[in-house]
């Protein structure tokens, strides 16, 4: 489904629809990951009755833009413009398929889970349920040692590098993709301060999350140092009214390495944990 954000950005919303869905999920990818890489996950969920719509982050995959010195954006464009377009796309798809009464879920992987939490606070009318996989706040104090000792240095270096290069060269350094300067600045601000704020967005995101009361299902992975259980707990602490169910999976349960990304190729255990 082709979508256009209010500032003209174009992207595709990928859909995987079962014959008789019981719920609809808007899924937000990790930083730097194109929507197409979640196709096995979407198919696994669809086999369990979930209509899955996979969002495309600005700058990746089907997006009409690529981050550069000329093209820059931050959390504001992702939260206010692009996610609004995808939510409208999901609603229209449900109307077209005659499934207007389906309950809606928003969720995501890594950064996708963080921004799903923020968006749920901003626009609570779309979904009442939140699904998180390998996700947690990047706040340096929420990480165990020794990572917490060097993370503040990384959180200062990456925005500097993005500014110097015109965009973060994520593929070259092994973190994310080619990412916009303001996006990395917004991310690093939350990582250093523990609070979410989008430059140019007149919304107190932390206060909005406090007001939200979703039903949360979260899956952590035993060998995931990028989103340890402690970082998930910190993210969930921003939603004190939420009803939370968490599951930790190891490599035996996944039949794959229980790290940040390997589950995407063998997603059945994750899909089962979310839908049971």
TrEMBL record:
MF term (GO), any: hydrolase activity
Swiss-Prot/TrEMBL keywords: Hydrolase
InterPro entries attached to this UniProt entry: AB_hydrolase_fold, Hydrolase_4, UCP037442_abhydr
Organism: Novilysobacter erysipheiresistens
Gene3D superfamilies linked to this entry: alpha/beta hydrolase
Organism placement in taxonomy: Bacteria, Pseudomonadati, Pseudomonadota, Gammaproteobacteria, Lysobacterales
Domain Serine aminopeptidase S33: from-to ranges: 20-163
Name of the featured protein: Alpha/beta fold hydrolase
């Amino acid at each position: 489904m082709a979508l256009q954000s209010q500032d003209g950005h174009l992207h595709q919303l990928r859909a995987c629809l079962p014959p008789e869905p019981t719920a609809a999920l808007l899924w937000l990818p990790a930083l730097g990951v194109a929507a197409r890489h979640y196709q096995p996950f979407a198919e696994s969920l669809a086999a369990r009755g979930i209509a899955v719509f996979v969002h495309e982050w600005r700058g990746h995959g089907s997006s009409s833009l690529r981050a550069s010195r000329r093209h820059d954006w931050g959390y504001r464009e992702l939260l206010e413009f692009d996610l609004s377009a995808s939510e409208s796309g999901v609603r229209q798809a449900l109307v077209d398929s005659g499934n207007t009464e389906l309950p809606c879920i928003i969720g995501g992987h890594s950064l996708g889970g963080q921004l799903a939490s923020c968006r749920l606070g901003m626009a609570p009318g779309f979904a009442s349920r939140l699904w998180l996989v390998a996700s947690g706040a990047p706040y340096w104090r929420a990480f165990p040692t020794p990572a917490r000792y060097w993370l503040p240095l990384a959180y200062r270096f990456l925005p500097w590098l993005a500014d110097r290069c015109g965009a973060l060269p994520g593929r070259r350094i092994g973190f994310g993709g080619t990412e916009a300067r303001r996006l990395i600045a917004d991310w690093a601000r939350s990582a250093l301060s523990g609070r979410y704020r989008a430059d140019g967005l007149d919304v107190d995101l932390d206060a909005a999350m406090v007001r939200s009361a979703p039903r949360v299902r979260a899956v952590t992975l035993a060998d995931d140092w990028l989103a340890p259980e402690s970082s998930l707990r910190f993210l969930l602490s921003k939603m004190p009214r939420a009803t939370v169910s968490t599951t930790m999976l190891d490599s035996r349960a996944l039949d794959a390495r229980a790290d940040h990304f390997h589950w995407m190729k063998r997603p059945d255990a994750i899909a089962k944990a979310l839908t049971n």
